[in-house]
């Protein structure tokens, strides 16, 4: 009967560490429109119209709801580190503006610098009134339900 030697245990431990470390890598995902620079460069203001843009670039990600009916093509690269929230590493928003005759007027490009980072502060929303505990919430109306003309003192929030 033969047992593992020191080198064999070292090799098994190394393989285990490699397998464990490979599970902790970030996942990069592309979302939205895949921008082909050659096709975008082929769109020329004053020459192309909605139909030719749709044939060249395809349908937009979304169309503006107010004002002119601008077309937007949104492309994002999102990285998901292990045990943390995903975050946008790259973003391109391509906006095509049209005139009333449906001809391309301009092509605008915005990047990730336009993304607003919102960091909420605290975990509670402040409200008016006094704070009530669990027992007050459970038993606060005992005796007031069904009493004729009885109104709890201080209103519904106890204030």
UniProtKB/TrEMBL annotation:
Signal peptide positions (record): 1-21
InterPro entries: BamE, BamE-like, BamE_dom
PROSITE patterns hit by this protein: PROKAR_LIPOPROTEIN
Pfam families recorded: BamE
Outer membrane protein assembly factor BamE domain: residues covered: 32-106
Keyword vocabulary terms for this entry: Cell outer membrane, Membrane, Signal
Organism superkingdom: Bacteria
Name of protein: Outer membrane protein assembly factor BamE
